[in-house]
Structure formats: C-alpha cells, structure tokens
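Re: that chain you flagged

S.,

Sorry for the slow reply, it's been a week of failed gels. I finally had a moment to sit down with the sequence you sent. For the record, here it is as I used it:
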Amino acid sequence: MKMYMPLVASEDGIVNFVKQPGVSLEPGDILGILTLDNPARVKHAKPFDGLLPSFGPTWCHREQTPSTPGNWVPRVSD
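Prediction finished late last night. Pasting the structure tokens below so you have them in one place:
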C-alpha cells in the first residue's frame, strides 16, 4: 500500500532523506532529517511533568448484551 503524506513546516530548510523510496517502514522509523535555516525560531516539545486529574471510577452500563444476531434487529410481530 502506498501512502502520501505532506510535510508542512513553518520554517525553511533542507530535507535529507534517511529511507529510500519504496522500502517497507516500521513504526518509529526516521524517514528524514530536516536541517533548518534558522533553528532558533522553532519551539521544542517538552515532556509533560504534571499530574493528570482524577476521573473517578470506571464503569460500563449496558442494558442487555446481544448474544445472537437476532437480538440486534427489531422483530416484527403479526
């Protein structure tokens, strides 16, 4: 399967490709390196060091679990 993905960058630079066209990719593969003309203008991502709020206990409410496909469709009675 072929996939085309645009690369949108707000700063100018040169792309140096690491992977050759047509190779299989794995999750986490580096496709290329972008060398920026002015790297000082780019904001770097920082790791999250805060705490997530408490969402309370988890629950699942279900009236009836469908066991057969016949339970999924409404039945017509005469």
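What I noticed first: The longest strand covers residues 13-17.

Talk soon,
D.
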